[in-house]
């Protein structure tokens, strides 16, 4: 499948498998969201890949125009929660390479219950004060190549340039699966609040965070280069 050069207005779309064979999606153009945040804001996602096994996605620029929703939230108005820019749900054997992602309403790339995911040479941009716009969020997944959520295992984060923002965070909430075998290496953090962080609930739980390696990381003007916080969620409990 080929998306030619040009700019394309796109509302919420879903690509649903299973598929008969491996596919390639070549994106030369730019996808933009509607200017009115309400067209996407009440949805969980903007672009969804569900139960797709074997797809390679190359290139493309995607602009979710999230600033109007961020402004709504900053004023304390009754705003929708916002849509994830791209979601992969129950997908296997996926390569995402060369994508440029701008101004997501929420998380840019969301990965849930996936296996064998490779994300390479990507550029993810949002203002440092935009609310809850994690670059990549992974949970209940294995074998990935950057919040890291519950049930994530065998993750490799290599050669990342990060900043400004919150840094890379393996973390977990109460009543969730653990996180293990996470390697973060050969990366640079510039003007971030944190470099690498491990956070958890302070109360008793079956969850865990283990076998986490931070190696060869460069920090420039980072407030907390490495922080381990087992009381991060204390003040957020109802």
From TrEMBL:
Q: Where in the cell is it found?
A: Secreted, Cell wall
Alphabetized, the UniProt keywords read: Cell wall, Cell wall biogenesis/degradation, Glycosidase, Hydrolase, Secreted
What family is reported? Belongs to the glycosyl hydrolase 28 family.
Task: Kindly provide the name given to this protein in its UniProt entry.
Answer: Polygalacturonase
Q: Which domain of life is it from?
A: Eukaryota
Tell me the GO molecular function terms.
polygalacturonase activity
Q: Which organism is it from?
A: Erythranthe guttata (Yellow monkey flower)
The answer, when asked if Plastid is one of the entry's keywords, is no
- PANTHER family attached here? PTHR31375
Q: What is its main location?
A: secreted
- What single Pfam family name could you report for this chain, choosing any that match? Glyco_hydro_28
Q: Which InterPro entries match?
A: Glyco_hydro_28, Pectin_lyas_fold, Pectin_lyase_fold/virulence
Q: What does the record list as GO biological process? A: carbohydrate metabolic process; cell wall organization
Residue runs in coiled coils? none
